[in-house]
Amino acid sequence: MKIDKNTNKRFYLNWRWYYHLVLLFILVYMFVVAIKYGVIKEGWYKNLTDNNKYNFILSYDAMNSFFTTHVNLLTFIWLTIIILGYDKIRTNSNWSWTARNLILNWNILMFLGFLVGLIFTTTRLANQLVLIERWTRYQTIVTVVVHFVVPLALVIIYFFEQNSCYYQFKKLTKYWNELVLVNIYPLFYLGFVIVRSIIYKKAVIQDYRFVYGFLNFEKPLFGSSSIVYLVLLFIITILVTLVVHINIMLYNNLCFNYQNKSSKTNQLKSDQKNLNQKNNNYKS
């Protein structure tokens, strides 16, 4: 169900456009800081004190192998499109709203994954970057912003942007295309890690070979079969992604109901005010 309420002001008069713009600048700045300190100066990903001439390349490659970096890049692309075409994009169009939902889903997956890593604080499950005692000041800032602040910011702006799309859960199969699309990138990322691990094995590179400990199918967290473990990883990824997306749909409907209820209330107040004005004019 879609209701066209695209009454946005010109982008330069709309605070939501500036919200997206600020969020974009934050992502770009965090990427620059990660390059400057994480790769070049402080060596968050690789020990820069040894004499390996490929350290900077390997460090940069490690940074770009993370799910977080990929999601941030996708978010950057989406924000750029939103900012450049804010007046032209119909907020109630299928592709526009689906794209917003996908970006929110992947950011939430990133947030949940990192949160689990922090709670259990084990490199067997995640990687050495979850060891908080090793964080530098800039590493702490970048980590907190990209894993927590950005996803929260997307959840907040979602509330204010949503007043035109509603999901009918009795007809959930209508949205099968969105439920399929949201799984494409997480599954692609699993495939990316598998291929990368094979390439790194041939190159005799062990650091961040599987990126995250739980993706090491050669040493499964449970069981002994790499094939079975990989199949389970794919199934669990699909299920978790779907659960997150269904919750986004529920949040979407909650926002829709609140925004449209507020609009109706404001309209009733306006009608009542006009009616009172007419009565006063009539009496005078």
Explain what this protein looks like in three dimensions.
With 284 residues, the chain is mostly helical. Helix content is 67%, strand content 0%. It is built from seven helices and no strands. It has helices at residues 15-41, 55-63, 67-84, 94-120, 137-161, 176-202, 226-283. Helix 1 (15-41) runs antiparallel to helix 2, helix 1 (15-41) runs antiparallel to helix 5 and helix 3 (67-84) runs antiparallel to helix 4. The longest helix is centred in the C-terminal third of the chain and has 58 residues, at 226-283. The protein is globular. The model is unreliable at 1-7 (pLDDT under 50).
Q: TL;DR of this structure?
A:
By secondary structure, the protein is mainly alpha-helical. 67% of the residues lie in helices and 0% in strands.
What is Rg?
23 Å
Average pLDDT figure: 85
Query: How many domains is the backbone divided into?
Result: 1
Q: What's the end-to-end separation, in Å?
A: 47 Å
Please report which band the strand proportion falls in: under 5%, 5-15%, 15-25%, 25-35%, 35-45% or over 45%: under 5%
Largest sheet: none
Reading the helices and strands in chain order gives HHHHHHH
The coarse silhouette is globular
Query: What is the total tally of β strands?
Result: 0
Number of helices: 7
> What percentage of residues falls in helices of 4 or more residues?
55-70%
List low-pLDDT spans.
1-7
Instruction: Give the class from helix and strand content and strand pairing.
Output: mainly alpha
Assembly of the depicted chains: single chain
